[in-house]
Write a structure and sequence with these properties.
Elements lengths: L4 E4 L5 H12 L3 H12 L2 E9 L2 E15 L2 E13 L8 H15 L4 E5 L2 H5 L5 H4 L2 E2 L7 E5 L7 E4 L9
Parallel strand pairs: 4-5, 6-8
Antiparallel strand pairs: 1-2, 2-3, 3-4, 3-8, 5-7
Helix pairs in contact: 1-2
Length: about 170
Amino acid sequence: MSAVIIRPEEPGDEAAIARVVEAAFGNPGEALLIEALRADGDVVLSLVAERDGEIRGHILFSRLFVVKDENRIPAVALAPLAVDPDHQDEGIGTALIDEAHLRLQQKGEDLSVVLGDPDYYGKFGYTHERARDFASNYQGEALQALAWNDTPLEGQLVYPRAFSALS
């Protein structure tokens, strides 16, 4: 088995990304979210995992804001992370998250928020404790945050418009 190459999404990757995301989630909802985030210009970082010339995984971070008082503090939302079901448990998701976190920190991002499995995302430093005081339509144990620098501990999470279409 050859090594996984993590690289930025490029023009022409869209169809392969959509196939991987739809296969991983079992429906087109998350792929439609990606399309809407792209169309609205809300993508901060989009990476693919490629092995043997085929896209096997994808991760996307979009612009999120923490609104507190009159301040809008930029942050990122991790959604979605997808790995082709035939290639799960090969470390692809871990490689995507690790590389994305490095790139986000290099870009000066301070806070990432995710809605997902606490056991899985906890391996990467995400915790509900860090996110519990944020006001959000998604508030609950699955809402988790990871801070790389000093960031607000509370405030309203304002997601990109594309998230409002998710049920």
